[in-house]
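Hi both,

Apologies for the delay on this - the queue was longer than expected. I finally got the nicotinamide-adenine-dinucleotide-bound model through. Below you'll find the protein sequence and the ligand SMILES exactly as submitted, and right after that the structure tokens for the full complex including the ligand.
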Amino acid sequence: MTAINDLVSYEARDGVGVVTIDSPPVNALSQGVRAGIKGGIEAGVADNNVSAIVLTCAGRTFIAGADITEFGKPPTEPGLKEVIGIIEASNKPVIAAIHGTALGGGLETALGCHYRVAVASAKVGLPEVKLGLLPGAGGTQRLPRVVGVPIALDLITSGEHVPAPKAHKLGLIDELVDGDLVDGAIAFAKKIVAEGRPLVKISDQNDKIEEAKKTPGLFDEFRKKNARRFRGFEAPENCIKSIEAAVNLPFDEGLVRERELFSELLAGEQAKAQQYFFFSERQAAKIPDVPKDTPLIDIKSAGVIGAGTMGGGIAMNFLQAGIPVIIVETSQEALDRGIEIIKKNYAATVSKGRLSQEKMDKYLSLLTGTTQLEDIKDVDIVIEAIFENMEVKKEIFGKLDKICKQGAILATNTSTLDIDEIGAATTRPEYVIGLHFFSPANVMKLLEEVRTQKTSASVMATCMALAKKIGKVPVMVRVCEGFTGNRMLAKRTDQAQKLILEGAKIEDVDRVLYDFGFPMGPFAMGDLAGNDVSWRIRQGKGVKSPVADAICELGRFGQKTGAGYYRYEAGSRTPQPDPVVEEIIEKAAKEAGVTRRKITDEEILKRCIYPMINEAAKILEEGMATRASDIDVIWVYGYGWPIYRGGPTRYADHIGVENIYNDMLRFKSALGGEEWTPAPLLEKLAKEKKGFKDL
Ligand SMILES: NC(=O)c1ccc[n+]([C@@H]2O[C@H](COP(=O)([O-])OP(=O)(O)OC[C@H]3O[C@@H](n4cnc5c(N)ncnc54)[C@H](O)[C@@H]3O)[C@@H](O)[C@H]2O)c1
């Protein structure tokens, strides 16, 4: 074996040159790896003892992608495109032997090879779009030439990881290898040499391109079909344009166009925000005072208390992860209703073809219902999701303390209550934690985990790991009113209410936030979730909100009653502006002595967003969240903040904290109100001309 450099070696085996990349952990395409591949291929071409070359990787995976630590740094030679060009130009067939994942630049490298073989467990894909980019080393030009334009459009704009068997069916993998990958790849290499098969240079393959030319409306139809999914994002459109170039331009010119479209994205804010978010999400998994080697509690079974809106969804997450669930209700009727909803939800997914009947049956076989709390005495974790009432919750936790085995985690899904107080109702507060799921709990990715003063490190570490197991993104925060997410949301709700009282139209406030990138505005969201929920919370606290209260007093709870801030035609979820509501607002404004005026879109946006950012500064100052980026993860996964804007604190840095601070002071003098007093941290950052990123 010859070392090409520190990371790549070359060896002739049985008449085939084997180039092996060994750059742990994931064989990312660093400068050394690129130079090594180039040297390895050149060694194979020069070696008279071999008639073909296998390109493979040591360790747990094929090249898993670009070396993200090189992002934003000046490019170093040789570039990936050059290396791929050298592979493709080899006069001996080059075969990529893939295990683990071949993603991004990894798959682009494999597409430069003349053939690809893989083990069945491998996955391939071009996920650049998820980082706000496009595959910039020929991926958008080569993939459509292999799998055809429609499939390439799907794969490149979704960034999907394709399992090897499916990739094999698509023609992206030439052969699946059983047993040892390198042995299989060598055997494949010898076979194609023996059969005298041609060197398949993908850049020369134009059949699929010609096929696409026969359907001129292909691209526009694809855009139209996916308009909702791509709304606001720049990368998918550039991916589409680049694939269009593959169809309309000769290969080399297509490569140039791909580079232009890539560079455009790379220089833009969206790609930076999406890359920032990628790291933020990974960072959020770490809790500074919980060591990595903290022992975990084994979670083999779960108990869920309450089979209502949240309990049902929470139970589904566990079932899907293969963890048996016992769900507890107060009456058989409530229990049956709750379980029926779970069944209906699964059945709907089955009928859409997104779940097999077999899996549904398996999930349901893991579910048991009971009306006896004692039945959960042996579970490893309990999640309480009953009414939002402190006395009732304390009573339940007191009972759980007596019933549940020692070492079981006792979690609450409360969204507003003091979890320290709930923990104090037990003799084991170190096992009590908040697991704040978002509605619908089987869909929303965020799990806001809330530690009390007493929650133990091992309970926290277990719940962070458990969240991943059930497909959630966990962020650990501390106990305060509304925790982190809802505490910030309350600031937006407050402004939205003030704006409509002062003269903004409901549909304008919603439109501005929708155009900013949220899935819907605050009023449409209220109508969807049910306006009665916050009304009850306000009543409990003795807080008034003139328009919101008046709407609820009329029984306008939202979509479920056919009317809320909007009206809804029977069977429709489309919000229609309602003159009745406008009258309610005018009356409320008169009573409050508010003179109504025209309000610009710019004012709507700033007033909805800046008080949230100010609250984020307070949350950080108080240590309620660990990092600014954790807050961003909460908002993207829990509230639909557009990922291409990174999250509230990233957005603040983009706008400039100093500019936000100055606007806050302007609003303070124009409108008054404590909400416009900048948080000390915001003021400090503004004065030092810094951002949240500098904390
Ligand atoms: N709905 C949301 O959007 C949302 C989001 C996050 C958190 N939460 C929180 O989740 C919790 C549950 O909310 P929900 O919307 O699911 O309420 P829900 O009214 O839909 O369901 C509560 C269920 O608990 C049952 N229940 C009440 N007391 C019980 C007891 N002692 N034992 C067993 N079951 C009992 C009720 O019969 C009911 O079915 C609340 O703490 C709420 O604040 C709700």
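Main takeaway for now: The longest strand covers residues 8-13.

I'll put the files on the shared drive as well.

H.
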